[in-house]
Automatic annotation (TrEMBL):
<dbReference type="InterPro" id="IPR038607">
    <property type="entry name" value="PhoD-like_sf"/>
</dbReference>
<dbReference type="InterPro" id="IPR006311">
    <property type="entry name" value="TAT_signal"/>
</dbReference>
<dbReference type="Pfam" id="PF16655">
    <property type="entry name" value="PhoD_N"/>
</dbReference>
<feature type="signal peptide">
    <location>
        <begin position="1"/>
        <end position="28"/>
    </location>
</feature>
<dbReference type="InterPro" id="IPR029052">
    <property type="entry name" value="Metallo-depent_PP-like"/>
</dbReference>
<dbReference type="InterPro" id="IPR032093">
    <property type="entry name" value="PhoD_N"/>
</dbReference>
<feature type="domain" description="PhoD-like phosphatase metallophosphatase">
    <location>
        <begin position="164"/>
        <end position="501"/>
    </location>
</feature>
<keyword id="KW-0732">Signal</keyword>
<dbReference type="InterPro" id="IPR052900">
    <property type="entry name" value="Phospholipid_Metab_Enz"/>
</dbReference>
<dbReference type="Pfam" id="PF09423">
    <property type="entry name" value="PhoD"/>
</dbReference>
<feature type="domain" description="Phospholipase D N-terminal">
    <location>
        <begin position="53"/>
        <end position="151"/>
    </location>
</feature>
<dbReference type="InterPro" id="IPR018946">
    <property type="entry name" value="PhoD-like_MPP"/>
</dbReference>
<protein>
    <submittedName>
        <fullName>Alkaline phosphatase D</fullName>
    </submittedName>
</protein>
Length: 561
């Protein structure tokens, strides 16, 4: 079956943005809330293409998915309203069974209101399971780009397999989003974004050596207008739009969607008075919902937003999407690496009690071949000290040892068939075995962790040889490390999960090709990662000199203002 490619998406997007010569959506049935005529729209200020932010789909199940767009003819407007008049607009939408958009299977009209940033979230159901669909929107004579979505298999079916990718950490200023475009070309069935979709800093606050490649518009994001403008700036990137249009997404946040290293109601720097932090949190959550293809269950209510949720991919996989920011105890001993007594306090949690119970109950109920945790921060232990002291990152699960132990023991007790943790945050590729006792390397492996590098954060990075990485020597359960930018694409089947760690040689120049640096396999009922391929070190690639590679990794993860 033909699928949307990055090239066809960009061509469609260019055509849709034209003022003249754009075909109306085929067989449109606008209904009683029909969009206004082009003349009326122009007279009221909508005289430019409102689909500058593209389209997206998300949260698929066996009968449907969410389709999303946001109207913004002037996406970088400082008031965050995208150049839209302060009134309601009716948006026609259609879903097709073919990429050409000739066979309409669903149609309707949705309201885009100023209260929600003129965003549109349409939840579809009653579609056929385990198949591709296409969709687009229309306002007046403007037609959006075409997007592709896919339904999950029926609960009783394994379906036709799953090509699933996961990504994290896209700092607009640090490089071009080429990795998103290359990911779109892979034509996956599902994309997980594990946090740091956008960054909150004002221009040139968080810099890379040699200076930033692009620049943020506006101040540090603190108000609703700020967050709306920042999300819009990111969404104007054509490679990000291509990735959103290529497949449905499952999204969760990490810290930069609000404030670096925030924890529940505590900002990054609690010693600095921030009486408006909860107002800032409410604004960030609202803008996040407005700009993501989320279901109505995630509509924020004040400072709270339900983001942890479970998506079933037939009998093949359960995706447990976690929120390790909104309910966590504040980091102990600061946010960096430390030998911290608070890290082992059983009263501390990274998930909160309610989410932990929900997750453990999901393990007990699961009958899936694969149980996949989509979450934000490093799960396995990473000790950076070869001596008796245990120096670990307090912003990761290492800062919440009892919380990690309860969840790991939970999937062991529930006899989860294949637990796999997917992670972002740390701006490098990693692969590791998971243990109940990391201090005894002879104990059995009980799960697997795959970690995606950043899309751009940290700049180009450098090719590296895992054999020279001391973290892997100190922690024998850690099996792979690479410090280039990229993404991970997996092929999930009944008998194994295969993960290709994709990298780009540079992100400070647009258009780089992606290639596979390493491939790991997780076999059914065999916990742990097995390497099957490693591309040799590129002799022409720039590499960081020196032997203290531990310090290099620590610097990469903590170089945030």
């Amino acid at each position: 079956m033909s699928r949307l490619t990055r090239r066809s998406f960009l061509v469609t997007g260019i055509a849709a943005g034209a003022v003249a010569g754009v075909p109306a959506i085929a067989n449109a049935d606008p209904g009683p809330a029909a969009s206004e005529s082009a003349a009326s729209l122009a007279s009221r200020g909508l005289s430019a293409n409102p689909f500058t932010l593209g389209v997206a789909s998300g949260d698929p199940d066996a009968g449907g998915f969410v389709i999303w767009t946001r109207l913004a003819p002037q996406p970088l407007a400082e008031d965050g309203l995208g150049g839209m008049p302060s009134r309601r607009f009716s948006v026609d939408w259609q879903v097709y069974s073919d990429e050409a958009g000739r066979r309409v299977v669903r149609r309707g009209v949705a309201a885009a209101t100023p209260e929600w940033g003129h965003s549109v979230h349409v939840e579809l159901d009653g579609l056929s399971s385990d198949r591709d669909y296409w969709y687009r929107f229309k306002v007046g004579h403007y037609v959006s780009p075409m997007g592709r979505a896919r339904t999950a298999p029926h609960a009783s079916s394994y379906g036709s397999g799953l090509a699933m990718a996961f990504v994290s950490c896209a700092q607009y200023e640090h490089g071009y989003f080429t990795a998103y475009g290359r990911l779109a070309e892979e034509q996956p069935d599902l994309i997980l974004h594990l946090g740091d979709y956008q960054y909150e800093y004002r221009r040139d606050t968080y810099t890379i050596p040699g200076g930033n490649i692009r620049h943020h518009e506006g101040p540090e994001t603190e108000s609703l207008a700020n967050y709306r403008q920042r999300h819009a700036q990111y969404k104007t990137d054509p490679d990000l739009q291509a990735a959103h249009a290529a497949a449905p997404w499952l999204v969760v946040w990490d810290d930069h969607e609000l404030d670096n290293n925030w924890a529940d109601e505590v900002p990054e720097k609690p010693e600095v008075p921030q009486p408006d932090f909860l107002t800032r949190r409410e604004a960030a959550f609202r803008a996040y919902y407005e700009n993501m293809p989320l279901r109505r269950g995630s509509i924020p209510r004040g400072i709270d937003m339900q983001l942890y949720r479970r998506i079933q991919w037939g009998q093949l996989a359960n995706f447990h999407m976690l929120d390790t920011r909104q309910y966590r105890s504040d980091q102990g001993c600061g946010d960096g690496y430390d030998d911290c007594p608070e890290a082992v306090d059983p009263a501390r949690s990274i998930t909160g009690a309610a989410q932990e119970r929900w997750l453990l109950d999901g393990f007990r109920r699961s009958r899936a071949r694969w149980d996949i945790l989509g979450q934000q921060v490093f799960f396995a232990q990473r000790d950076n000290n070869a001596g008796p002291a245990k120096i670990t990152s307090q912003d990761a699960w290492d800062g919440y040892v009892a919380s990690r132990q309860r969840i790991t023991q939970g999937w062991v007790d529930a006899k989860v068939r294949n637990p796999v943790v997917l992670t972002g945050d740390v701006h490098a590729h990693w692969a590791s075995d998971l243990k109940l006792d990391y201090d005894d390397p002879t104990t059995r492996t009980v799960g697997s962790e795959l970690v995606a590098s950043s899309i751009t954060t940290g700049g180009d990075g450098a090719d590296s040889d895992p054999k020279t990485q001391p973290f892997l020597t100190i922690n024998p359960h850690l099996k792979f490390y690479n410090n280039q930018r990229g993404y991970v694409i997996t092929r999930v089947g009944r008998d194994q999960l295969t993960a290709d760690f994709k990298v780009l040689p540079r992100v400070t120049q647009a258009g780089a090709e992606a290639y596979t640096k390493a491939t790991f396999v997780i076999e059914d009922r065999v916990p742990g990662v097995q390497q099957t391929y490693l591309r040799p070190l590129d002799p022409s690639a720039a590499r960081t000199p020196g032997v203290d590679r531990i310090q290099e990794v620590v610097d990469l993860e903590t170089k945030r203002p």
